[in-house]
Design goal:
Structural class: alpha+beta
Largest sheet: 2 strands, parallel
Radius of gyration: 13 Å
Strand order of the largest sheet: 1-2
Mean pLDDT: 77
Number of strands: 2
Helix content: 25-40%
Number of helices: 3
Order of helices and strands: HEHEH
Low-confidence stretches: 77-91
Distance between the termini: 12 Å
C-alpha cells in the first residue's frame, strides 16, 4: 500500500481521524493506516458522516487543535472549523 509506506517514512507526527459509524469507509481502514504509520495517533469519533465538515465538525476541530497545539482552548467554536481543512490531509 503505497500511501502508508510514504507516510511511514516521513517521520512526521500524524493523526488519523475517523467516525465510528462512517457509512462510506470502513473504520478498519483508518485503524490499519494508523497502525502502519510509526507514532501515529488514531482517533475514532462518534458519528456516521464521511466528510469532516458534516455532522459534529467541532469534535474534529478540537482533536486537530489538540494535536497541533498540545491543548484545547475554551473558545473553540464552530467558526474555527473552516480553518482546519488547511491542515487536514486526505489520502
Amino acid at each position: 500500500m503505497a500511501p502508508v509506506t510514504r507516510y511511514a517514512r516521513s517521520g512526521e507526527a500524524s493523526i488519523v481521524i475517523h467516525r465510528s459509524g462512517d457509512s462510506a469507509w470502513d473504520p478498519r481502514h483508518s485503524r490499519y493506516l494508523a497502525e502502519h504509520i510509526p507514532g501515529a495517533r488514531h482517533i475514532e469519533l462518534d458519528g456516521i458522516d464521511s466528510l469532516p465538515f458534516v455532522g459534529d465538525s467541532d469534535a474534529i476541530v478540537e482533536e486537530i487543535e489538540e494535536f497541533l497545539t498540545g491543548g484545547r482552548s475554551a473558545l473553540c467554536t464552530r467558526t474555527t472549523s473552516t480553518t482546519y481543512t488547511k491542515v487536514y490531509r486526505f489520502l
